[in-house]
Write a structure and sequence with these properties.
Rossmann fold; four-stranded antiparallel sheet; alpha/beta; 249 residues; 36% helix; six-stranded mixed sheet; binds adenosine-5'-diphosphate
Length: 249
């Protein structure tokens, strides 16, 4: 195992995401317990788990929205404790809450976000991402007047606007039809510099298995199964998936 001090000094390591000893509780209830994770740059990890298993909490910790109780996260070599702003610039995030300004139009929402990151060529970037999520004809509509699926698409457009190396996605399939997901896949997977590192939580085994390079199951605050997609034991995966569904009902 690479020790923290040594790891922090290696800036050009091949890992996209590394998590060591991550713990998070709410009150007395532990959600993640001394959690370790490594994900190579350019790989896609899909995390499954029943409701309440901690998937959203993990994504919020990775995105620096939550602070861990203990442990550390590095994304593209940046520490969440020491360099959270560098992490925020390198990630695109789509959570359940689309985090849009409801009284602003699609265009205005994206412009606001782009200005926050001081992005060049903002008009071109906005046209590009609105095209990718098929919202060009809605660009002057206020976010509050968009359907749930359109709001999700706008949130995805915002996550892609700064062409991040890393994407964190919490159930991106919710509100999107299969065709839209199939069309979006290639735009999510690649930045202009190469394959994106992606962590995605989902309940949808079809899309999850299709998109994953690696799969993991979270249960009781830790990973109970992790495998690379190519050498995954599909029988064991489906057994765990069914167990999770039964427990969730
Ligand atoms: P999942 O995404 O797998 O459904 P979550 O990460 O949303 O799970 O939740 C894990 C547990 O943490 C749940 O018991 C949930 O109630 C609790 N939890 C999540 N966020 C908060 C919060 N902000 N305050 C208190 N409890 C929370």
């Amino acid at each position: 195992m690479i020790r923290k001090t040594a790891y922090s000094k290696i800036q050009k390591e091949p890992l996209g995401i590394r998590v060591e000893g991550l713990s998070k509780s709410f009150g007395a209830a532990p959600v993640l317990r001394c959690f370790d994770l490594t994900l190579e740059r350019g790989k896609r990890l899909v995390v499954f788990g029943r409701n309440g298993s901690g998937k959203t909490t993990l994504l919020k910790l990775l995105s620096t929205r939550y602070r861990p109780d203990s442990g550390e996260i590095w994304i593209n070599g940046n520490s969440s404790r020491l360099e959270p702003n560098a992490i925020r610039r390198s990630i695109g995030v789509v959570l359940h809450n689309p985090m849009l300004y409801e009284d602003m139009t699609c265009n205005e929402n994206l412009r606001f976000f782009g200005n926050m990151f001081d992005l060049d060529d903002l008009s071109d970037r906005i046209s590009d991402v609105l095209g990718k999520v098929n919202l060009v004809s809605q660009k002057e509509q206020k976010a509050r007047n968009l359907s749930h699926g359109m709001q999700k698409r706008l949130a995805i457009a915002r996550a892609l606007l700064h062409d991040p190396d890393v994407l964190l996605l919490d159930e991106p399939e919710s509100g999107l039809d299969k065709q839209m997901l199939d069309d979006l896949g290639p735009f999510l997977f690649k930045s202009t510099r190469g394959n994106r590192t992606i962590v995605m939580a989902t309940h949808n085994s079809e899309i999850g298995l299709k998109w994953a390079d690696e799969v993991a199951f979270l249960s009781k605050g830790t990973i109970v199964y992790k495998a690379s997609r190519v050498d995954m034991d599909e029988g064991r995966f489906h057994d765990i998936f069914l167990q999770q569904l039964e427990r969730a009902t």
